[in-house]
């Protein structure tokens, strides 16, 4: 028994070191210009069986399960941060990229895979379908903190959040063609539309139910609200999956609905899921790093094949698919080139590459190894240069937005009031106004102003200046009115935004 306790303690110590090392890695990833997910995978490969040998892991079922659970958490966190007002104008091009774009990318990559890997046509299309979609985890992680124009950022996030159904549909379809003698093609097409439609409906319905529940059910602790919200994320995925619909699409839609609703404990929910999203990314990519065998992937045949497919994907398939898919939409050529370059591959293709293994398909190990190296190349090349490309094409916004945060007050949680924290910029119309000039609702009061590091006690003649941080106590029913007043921008700024759009 003592031996078992010692082994469990050693495992806990290893997990602690992996978590600490992985978080420290995120600090240096931006300085190195390398996406953090690549470094997480490297950590997994380092401690795996082909590395230092601390952990032996080769179970595809567990790897696939952990990957799906982590993707649910990451999609949920990213969806809650997505603003509907930003993605509404780009819904049509995003869905076109997520459907037509994936099919075009799959076809071009399949043509290359057929002759590069010397495999059959169905297997080649299986490879193309696996790497055909962009990855939400990679896109959300790389774009976070980057000052890319909202229109382009919204298009990429909406595309990556909605293109998983097409990739999963194509992957499963070609696996069935390889494993089943007679496949009903019309049934497969109908299944795709059902997955998209039912996933959308289930996601929207559960998102609406979650928003009502989060606002109307008074829990004993504010710390329970983030877990309550997370429960709806898993409910959305499982309900949709049981209906043979797209669970990942349902999760993303649920998150968008929740994130754009008025939530009583928004700040606690978002901060919890930001940290939990990072945990999910770290766990997922370390597990994928453990699962891969570096001695098999980093061989000359696999690396050459993977590099050739990656070059076709990055410089031919994705650009052609993007240009054709967006032909009828109002994007400039520079914006189309940027959207093409920012179509990152990540966890989803690697998780999908496990599916052929689970199905027992011939050449499944070769497919996984090539896909892994292709994704690694795509992430390194494209992910590390997104900011440079955006700046080169002058597709960077002048300033980051100034989000409104709600600071939940635990002691007065039952009083239905919140403390709003708002950072004032030069764009806001309230700049130059005194507190007497501001038309705040009756049950709203500016309690404090932080200016140049000092706390200012406000009074009627206090003038609002750019750079101030306002702390406003407001009744929840008046929160929307206060947000509208604070977020109003000057007319010249509004005209500037319209001209740039």
From TrEMBL:
Transmembrane portions of the chain: 12-30, 37-56, 62-82, 94-113, 119-143, 164-180, 192-210, 222-239, 245-263, 338-361, 367-390
Cross-referenced Pfam families: Na_H_Exchanger, TrkA_C
GO MF term list: antiporter activity; monoatomic cation transmembrane transporter activity
Record keywords: Antiport, Cell membrane, Coiled coil, Ion transport, Membrane, Transmembrane, Transmembrane helix, Transport
Coiled-coil segments: 472-499
InterPro entries reported in the protein's UniProt record: Cation/H_exchanger_TM (IPR006153), Na+/solute_symporter_sf (IPR038770), RCK_C (IPR006037), RCK_C_sf (IPR036721)
Compartment annotation: Cell membrane
Top-level taxon of origin: Bacteria
Annotated ranges, domain RCK C-terminal: 407-488
Membrane association type: Multi-pass membrane protein
Keyword DNA repair carried by entry: no
BP term (GO), one: potassium ion transport
SUPFAM superfamilies: TrkA C-terminal domain-like (SSF116726)
GO CC term, one of those recorded: plasma membrane
Protein name: Potassium/proton antiporter
């Amino acid at each position: 028994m003592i031996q078992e306790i010692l082994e469990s303690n050693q495992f806990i110590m290893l997990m602690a070191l992996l978590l600490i090392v992985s978080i420290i890695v995120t600090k240096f990833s931006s300085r190195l210009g390398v996406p953090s997910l690549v470094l997480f995978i490297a950590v997994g490969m380092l401690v795996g069986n082909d590395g230092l040998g601390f952990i032996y892991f080769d179970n595809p079922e567990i790897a696939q399960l952990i990957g799906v659970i982590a993707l649910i958490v990451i999609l949920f966190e990213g969806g809650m941060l997505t603003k509907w007002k930003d993605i509404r104008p780009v819904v049509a091009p995003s869905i076109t990229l997520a459907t037509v774009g994936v099919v075009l990318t799959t076809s071009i990559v399949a043509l290359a895979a057929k002759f590069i890997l010397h495999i059959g046509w169905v297997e080649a299309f299986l490879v193309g379908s696996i790497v055909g979609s962009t990855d939400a985890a990679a896109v959300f992680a790389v774009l976070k903190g980057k000052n890319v124009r909202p229109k382009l950022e919204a298009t990429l996030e909406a595309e990556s959040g909605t293109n998983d159904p097409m990739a999963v549909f194509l992957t499963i379809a070609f696996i069935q063609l390889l494993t089943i003698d007679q496949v009903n093609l019309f049934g497969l097409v109908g299944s795709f539309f059902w997955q998209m439609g039912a996933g959308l409906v289930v996601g929207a319905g559960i998102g609406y139910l979650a928003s009502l529940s989060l606002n109307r059910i008074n829990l004993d602790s504010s710390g329970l609200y983030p877990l309550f919200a997370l429960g709806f994320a898993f409910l959305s995925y499982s309900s949709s999956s049981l209906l043979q619909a797209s669970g990942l699409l349902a999760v993303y839609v649920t998150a968008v609905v929740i994130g754009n609703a008025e939530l009583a404990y928004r700040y606690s929910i978002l901060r919890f899921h930001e940290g939990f999203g990072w945990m999910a990314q770290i766990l997922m990519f370390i597990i994928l790093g453990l699962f891969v065998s570096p001695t098999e992937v980093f061989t000359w045949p696999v690396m050459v094949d993977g590099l050739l497919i990656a070059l076709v994907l990055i410089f031919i398939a994705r650009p052609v698919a993007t240009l054709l898919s967006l032909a009828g939409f109002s994007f400039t050529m520079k914006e189309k080139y940027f959207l093409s370059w920012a179509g990152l591959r990540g966890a989803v293709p690697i998780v999908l590459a496990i599916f052929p293994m689970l199905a027992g398909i011939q050449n499944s190990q070769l497919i996984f190894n090539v896909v892994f190296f292709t994704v690694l190349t795509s992430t390194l090349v494209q992910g590390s240069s997104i900011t440079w490309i955006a700046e080169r094409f002058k597709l960077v916004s002048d300033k980051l937005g100034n989000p409104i945060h709600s600071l939940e007050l635990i002691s007065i949680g039952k009083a239905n009031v919140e403390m709003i924290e708002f950072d004032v910029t030069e764009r806001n119309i309230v700049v130059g106004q005194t507190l007497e000039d501001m038309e705040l609702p009756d049950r709203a009061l500016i309690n404090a102003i932080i200016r140049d590091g000092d706390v200012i006690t406000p009074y009627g003649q206090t003038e609002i200046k750019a750079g101030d941080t306002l702390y406003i106590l407001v009744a929840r029913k008046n929160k929307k009115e206060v947000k509208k007043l604070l977020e109003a921008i000057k007319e010249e700024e509004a005209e500037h935004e319209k001209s740039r759009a």
